[in-house]
Amino acid sequence: MQTVEYLVVGAGMSGLGFTAWLRAEAAARGRPLPDVLVLEADDAPGGYCKTVVKDGFTWDYSGHFFHFKHKDIEAWLRARMDGEVRTVAKHSTIRVAGTDVDFPFQKNIHQLPHELFLTCLHDLYFRDEDSPDATAGSFKEMLYKRFGRGIAELFLVPYNQKLYATDLDRLDQDAMGRFFPHADIADIVRNMRAPDNASYNATFTYPAHGAIEYVRALLREVPDDQLALGERLIGVDLRRQVAWTTKRELGFKRLVSSAPLPRLLAACGVEHDTSAFTWNKVLVFNLGFDRKGKEGLHWMYFPDPSTVFYRVGWYDNILGGDRMSLYVEIGADKDAELDVELMRARVLEDLAREGIIAGHQLVAEHSVVLDPAYVHITRASMAEHARVKRTLEAAGVYSVGRYGGWTYCSIEDNLVETRALARTFGPLL
User: What is the pLDDT of residue 228?
Assistant: First the structure.
């Protein structure tokens, strides 16, 4: 039986990031490079950070736009990348009642038709007096208490229900963490005269050849013989520290996994409350058309339940080009059966109804289902995650990343987390 010091499950940004950071830590300490094996069930690395190039269009599996707060990490990646990386000042809008309102919605209600604006402003001012019967401490309650009925029901509630494909009363009030654009009443009124739509992703970067360039940067630090593609983890004996894959049996000293937490728990035979971990899936259509459409817009949100998609993004307004290149996202329950052909027809109908396409001819397309896509962060999931994390780590198993940590985070957050984990192993190298 082959034995490795570090068995890494998943060759996405988290798994490759951990491997690269661990090797860098060993080099910095003047220690031998660690014995690592990265398992990847797919035939190609990258996880959801894959890029598709087809008929002259460049698409990701979904919109991966990078918002670096840690300039040292960004510089480290860029030093290992080929090609241009573009920096873009984001312009995004929300389609409400036939009007396009700048993002974030709650700071731009003055752009609504007059009566809707007055309703939102009135309900914002009297928000504590007009709160519906929502579950205490839930995401839905937070939306009403912070912003009032008008803002909540015009955009925040219907949009997030389409996104998460669940009752917002189930989600914890801090389910989106720092990614939710909070604003108090002073911010909202001030924005009417002095616009300031700053957010965590007001400026983003994007490689000219797609998000896969960040994966390739990490792969420069991972030797080919440490990457096992097309090999899925099947089971783990925590006591013996032995793992089984679709190809072999492996011993390990430590296992670092970015696989979805429920899958890892099942593989490890760890008893857990399966009802605590729920999620949605997202059907993504990447669509290329014969000519340009809207210019200067990067993505648009659609809260109206009658429109099948919740968001549309424009790659061509980031990368340039004379043909419209879209990604279109549809949220669904994790158990929903999706008829891709039927949904494509519905997407094209709704794109025409919303005025995004007008006589355009579809000339190229790609689709993918992300499952899981957005995890549901609830009080039950947080408690159960904390409990099973202790069990796993006591056996030398570490679950990381958005799906391993069952959280809402950015790709940069995954790199920060895995760098910190690699550094904790430094004295053991």
Answer: 98
